[in-house]
Design brief:
The protein has 544 residues and is of the alpha/beta class. It has two domains: 2-279 and 535-543, P-loop containing nucleotide triphosphate hydrolases (Rossmann fold, 3-Layer(aba) Sandwich), CATH 3.40.50; 286-516, no CATH class. It has helices at 11-28, 34-47, 66-74, 100-110, 139-148, 167-177, 196-212, 237-243, 249-271, 286-304, 306-325, 327-339, 342-346, 349-354, 363-379, 385-391, 394-410, 421-449, 466-516, 518-538; strands at residues 2-4, 54-60, 92-96, 114-118, 126-130, 154-159, 183-188, 224-226, 455-458, 462-465, 541-543. The N and C termini lie close together (7 Å).
Length: 544
């Protein structure tokens, strides 16, 4: 037989843990997980009970002879059988007497109260439940069957020549439970009503249903057993032999749990549009993500206005140079520049960056991002689309991008650069300023008192008194020093502005690449976790 196992060292316990991971991932993707979550809890609970005895349920429709089959197996009246329908209202357990105490907790968990004992040594490893009819006119009977099926370890699906193609059996039960149970059989009861050829024909029909009619969940190893319960023990030989087959109870219990876990894990993956047997396929492929990142970054940088930042940085550098490298007059000019508010408007790169919301909108960037996420939304599985649609909600995207921009801006040192040359030039400017003042005073004295002074013969102009020469020379030196400090400050400012611009651009790009797709990335992480868990569970069936 096929026993689902797991390739990891933790075996079934590892599969249970992976199912929990798959459930969490599927919940993040917005996929219904109640059934899988319940199965996970039931698996943990079932492993807590002794597994020296496995639980087999007799499941079938009204009148197929489940109770008669159990009575024939027991050789006495264990479960009431009658032509009155429905007969079995509550499940009846037929258990080995030696295991009654051991099975007490398990039977209480199954909520089975009617218990019969036997001393059959050949069936010491199995507890058989006769369940209510799955197609009963009493709705609570079917509900009881559906509540117990996730908890039992094996099933004998009992049918007869009239009901073996019944839609309730095939569509409502076999389609769901064939992949989740490792130990199961189809019991064709009342086979005595058919001739041998018809029995074989019905067997083939049932096998055809098992292989091809289960929506891709076909099973080839489920046996079809012919019985005639009304003829007593002689008519149930195939069923008795199957029950007594040498399979350890512990192996059956763990195999059933492994099969259920694998089926549910892969079911969650299929609902999410994930093929566990294929390669990992992200919602947004890497090349599309790179293009979207570049386009969004470009739109965000336009909103920040990096050319304006560059102008502010150069102006701020020149303002600092003016305060340190232009002498007393420069200090006065710098103070006026600052206190008038002019410097805050045109020479404050830090404030300029912090006020980026006042200059532009991120709406174009949001639209680019929405378009990038639109393709995954169109191609995603229907169950995942609501969660994906939430990631392209404009207000949410804009908040995410604004946070990315703020983090990019806040993470950089915007201290205005300086130079050791500026104080030297400032000292020379002070000397030049003093020279200008002295020259002007000398000129005034010369004009008023006409003391004898030297002259300089200047081409074209002619003879120029020395006081005027001194004024002109000192003014020229001051102008030259101011030009030197201005050019030097401009060069340093442009270098700093370029570096700041590149750093801000790179930081914005990193933030958008790492966190601009944050809503989608949460779903991507969940999708990847579900793919990995389902892939591990899918690979858990090996022949033993």
């Amino acid at each position: 037989m096929t026993i689902p196992t797991t390739p990891d060292p933790d075996g079934l316990e590892g599969s249970i843990a992976r199912l929990a991971e798959a459930v969490d991932a599927a919940a993040t993707l917005g996929i219904p997980v109640d059934e899988a979550r319940a199965a996970h809890g039931e698996a943990v609970t079932r492993l807590g009970f002794p597994s020296d005895v496995f639980v087999l349920a007799l499941v079938g429709g009204t009148g197929v002879g489940k109770s008669t089959l159990l009575n024939a197996l027991a050789g006495s009246s264990v479960s009431p059988a009658s032509v009155r329908r429905p007969t079995t209202a509550q499940p009846v357990a037929w258990i080995p007497a030696a295991s009654h105490q051991e099975l007490a907790g398990l039977l209480a968990w199954l909520e089975v109260r009617e218990v019969r004992e036997h001393e059959r040594d050949a069936l010491r490893d199995v507890a058989i439940l006769d369940l209510p009819d799955m197609d009963s006119v009493a709705a609570e009977h079917r509900a009881r069957v559906e509540a117990l099926l996730p908890k039992v370890d094996a099933v004998a699906w009992v049918t007869d020549p009239e009901k073996y193609h019944d839609a309730v059996l095939v569509d409502d039960f076999l389609r769901t439970w064939l992949p989740r149970l490792d130990r199961q059989a189809i019991v064709l009861n009342k086979a005595d009503r058919l001739d041998p050829d018809d029995v074989q024909r019905v067997r083939r029909d049932l096998q055809r249903d098992l292989v091809g009619g289960m929506g891709g969940a076909g099973r080839t190893e489920v046996p079809v057993l012919a019985t005639s319960a009304t003829t007593g023990e002689a008519g149930i030989g195939e069923f008795s032999d199957w029950l007594a087959a040498g399979v350890e109870a512990k192996q059956i219990v763990r195999a059933r749990l492994a099969a259920t876990i694998s089926s549910l894990g892969n079911g969650l993956a299929r609902t999410a549009g994930i093929d566990p047997g294929g390669p990992e396929r992200p919602f947004l492929d890497p090349s599309a993500r790179r293009k979207a990142t570049a386009a969004v970054t470009s739109a965000v940088l336009r909103a920040i206005d990096l050319p304006g930042l560059e102008r502010q940085a150069v102006a701020a550098t020149r303002a600092r140079a003016r305060a340190r490298g232009t002498g007393p007059m420069g200090v006065i000019t710098s103070l006026v520049y600052r206190f008038s508010g002019r410097e805050a408007k045109v020479a404050d790169p830090d404030g300029f960056l912090m006020r980026w919301r006042d200059r532009g909108s991120l709406a174009p960037a949001v639209e680019v991002l929405r378009q990038a996420l639109g393709e995954p939304l169109r191609t995603a599985a229907p169950a995942v689309r609501p969660a994906l649609a939430a990631t392209v909600e404009p207000a949410r995207l804009q908040r995410g991008l604004e946070g990315a921009v703020d983090r990019a801006i806040a993470g950089h040192d915007r201290t205005v650069p300086s130079s050791r040359l500026w104080p030297v030039i400032g000292f020379l400017q002070t000397i030049a300023t003093v020279a200008i003042a002295l020259s002007v005073a000398w000129t005034i004295v010369w004009v008023l008192a006409r003391p004898p002074v030297d002259s300089v013969d200047v081409p074209v102009i002619g003879v120029v008194p020395m006081p005027f020469v001194a004024v002109v020379v000192s003014l020229f030196v001051g102008y030259l020093l101011a030009r030197v400090v201005g050019l030097h400050a401009g060069w340093i400012g442009r270098r700093w502005a370029g570096r700041l611009r590149r750093e801000i651009a790179a930081s914005v790009e990193r933030e958008i690449a790492d966190r601009g797709f944050e809503p989608l990335d949460r779903l991507e992480a969940a999708r990847q976790a579900l793919w990995a868990s389902a892939r591990a569970l899918k690979g858990g069936a090996t022949d033993r």
